[in-house]
Amino acid sequence: MTENVKEGSFNDDVTLIHVPSSLLALSVVPLLGIAIVSYQMNLGLETSILWGTVRSFVQLSILSAILQPIFYWGQDNPWVVLAYLCFMVLLASYEATSRSQYHFQNVFTYMFLAIALNITVVSLFAFGIILKPQPLWNPQYVITIVGMLLGNGITGISLALNSITSSFVEQPLEIELHLSFGASPVEACQRLVRDAVRVSTTPMLNSMAVIGLVSIPGMMTGQILAGSSVMEAARYQLLILYLIAVTAFGTVLTEIWLVQRVAFDRQAQILRPNFFFPKQSAFHDIKSFLENVLKRRENSRLQRLNENTNLPDYRSIDDASAKNSSETTIEFILAVDRAADGCENQTSLLSFQDLSQSIERTEKDPLLLFDRISHTIHYGDMVFVVAPSGAGKSTLLRMLSKLIFTDASNRILLEGRSTYSPTVWRKRIRYVRQNKVDIPGTPRDMIVRILTFQSWKISKHSMPFTTQQMISSVLHFIIEFGLEEECIDKLWKDLSGGESQRVYLAIALASQPDVLLLDESTSALDLDSKLLVERVLWKIVLEKRMGILWITHDTEQIDRMTFPPKAFQGNSSS
């Protein structure tokens, strides 16, 4: 009794004021007035106000009708409580997935696993160690507290799912940029994951920061109205608040980890943005499921028919004819005469044999980009890739840098080996795309970020860089390309297309790859700037023996590099 007095228990005879149905109906009148105001002002909110009012009344009435027998039966039967908890988690999983802009196959299952796992762990901690109700599954505690954990955490969970899936679909170039510098999948999407966690947990953290200052939270209010001491109500509210934070953080991290496993191929470490698709309605999901079942049954019937009658598979014949109908060719032009340089016996650096690649325009209409192309690049080679637009030149370079899937029959070797890990392979073979770099921060920030990748910390093929060494090398190339040093500290979004291309190329060169794959990397430059870049690349090929595979549509550029002016040769020998 003394403890109750100290903790602020004001009386033990307080009973909750009864609210009859008539007074409850009266409390709705002001809300109806707001709906009328919305109608008069053409706000368009009156339907939502009325629907929300009716829906909340119906849902809470049904909930009270359901919980009363569950509380009664659940005292002696834990399976009743467990079944209702599963039902709650199912609804929470559906609600979380329904708010996401993009879905992927089995997204509901992944969300259910993430929520169920964290709810289970937090509940075991809360009820097994902290509260210890009797019995342990006491529905008065378990169902109400788990309901609060789900209800208060669902917003953050859905925000995290929407943020991370949208990033994988809408920002694949940023991820590919980091992958091309030797990042692992986790390292490549680190910023996107960080942003998703921050977006999803900021509302909860803000709520924790102001709780008790601008409002009395719901559970504390309810306990005080029910007659509990203010201190005891505050303790319960703090307990619930901490449990909500742990549940939300744990579920967000778990779901992001699961989405990452879907987004990336674990063996090739390649992003798969095509695994995500715009959110579909529940009716569409059911319809697709039924269509797939019927399609499998039809395919099974046709297969049995073909086996019985030995009919040829006309779909395979059509696919083969579609592939063989392509006459697209890719030409390789060697710019450096190694024989004239006294280097006839060059070591093979990068070689590929019988590479083929096609894309699916439709399910039964594949488009062959190129078929059975082969080439070998030696140390000190500069090779131009020439073909019409749409022939698959960029696809070829991305295949060589292992940024897209390649068929097992495609043989690509680096120094005669194909067994390098994807991160080591991409550290040694640098793909430089033509797009303007569009990531947050400055080039200096990007350099610092690259040097944190694990493949750069431990490398058998080159000495680790220090940050200052890397930045100094980048600044050297920036000046050689005719830019000011200040470009390294400008935001990427503030650089022009030509400035972005040259700074990006400077970072690629400073990273000292063995092979440089240039995808129209001077397309945004004027002639004077092109000449500066060409002079630097010519010098590097001759002095560093770097291999370069270069896509360009500029025939004059090919002529200049194949038959370089004396100014180029003079600079290289000086």
Automatic annotation (TrEMBL):
Keywords: ATP-binding, Membrane, Nucleotide-binding, Transmembrane, Transmembrane helix. One of its GO terms (cellular component) is plasma membrane. GO terms for molecular function: ATP binding; ATP hydrolysis activity. It is a multi-pass membrane protein. Signal peptide: none annotated. This is Putative ABC transport system permease protein. Residues 350-570 form the ABC transporter domain. It is found in: Membrane. It comes from the Eukaryota. The lineage of its organism: Eukaryota, Sar, Stramenopiles, Ochrophyta, Bacillariophyta. Belongs to the UPF0014 family. The chain crosses the membrane at residues 16-37, 49-73, 79-96, 108-129, 141-161, 204-226, 238-259. Pfam families: ABC_tran, UPF0014.
